[in-house]
Amino acid sequence: MKVVETIGAMKRVRLELTEPVGFVPTMGYLHEGHLALVRQARAENPSVVVSIFINPTQFGPKEDFDKYPRDPEHDLALLEKEKTDIVFMPSEVKIYPPQFSSWVEVRKVTERLEGASRPGHFRGVTTVVAKLFNIVQPTKAYFGQKDAQQLVVIKKMVADLNMNLEIVTIPTVREPNGMAMSSRNAYLNPEQRQAATVLYKAISLAQRLWLRGGRDAEHMRQEMITLMKKEPLASIDYVSVADAKTLDELDTINPPALVSLAVKIGKTRLIDNVVLE
Ligand code: AMP
Fold it and tell me: Would the N or C end of the chain have less CB density within 10 A of its end CB?
């Protein structure tokens, strides 16, 4: 496994990789969710590149950029075990040198849900992902269903800008208690971790309603809200039942529909989702 820290070095080692090249972009503090992406990339490609970069431009001014968890040594040990070929770990100034002034912006699907709650978030995501794609030149890039809207946005960017790669979706990896694995779970104390299972309970309820023939989106939202209001440590940011492609809110549920939610447990903002098919 090679660790490269500059864009020039990444481009040089890229020239020697056997095609196809699988790429997994991450912000580090890796867990089994990230490793599921790496394993799929490993299974499908002779060459695997993983990037670790905490992208400052996707964090709002009041968000957790400064305290986002980091453990590069542990990350490298995990990636070594997964037989990663290249780890790209650039510094912030390499990615955003002074006077950096170009941005990639996807409209519409970025304006709701996470985009509405976190202004500028997706502009940061699409800009850094476009830069990473240009630097790494992957054949396939792997993203988690955990960040469902991010996947919709990235697929739209790739289609609209004719980017020459395939986007692969990996199902959400969960803790034994159902909660989606996330680097941000590290912020939770034991009581908050228990409270955080309410997100999974809410999306499981939505799934059950759907399987029983429930087609009324507003009824589904209200049932989820009622359930989550019973958890005193949870404060709801949004609950959405939307078209899985356009992210338009639905009245009548037509599959595939994306049920997604964002909830704060203490100061920690968590998201989860399920696709109704
Ligand atoms: P992050 O480091 O949070 O930017 O995540 C890097 C990639 O891992 C993204 O494509 C995420 O969607 C994916 N990911 C994060 N958590 C999970 C999870 N629990 N299951 C599957 N993929 C995940």
Answer: C
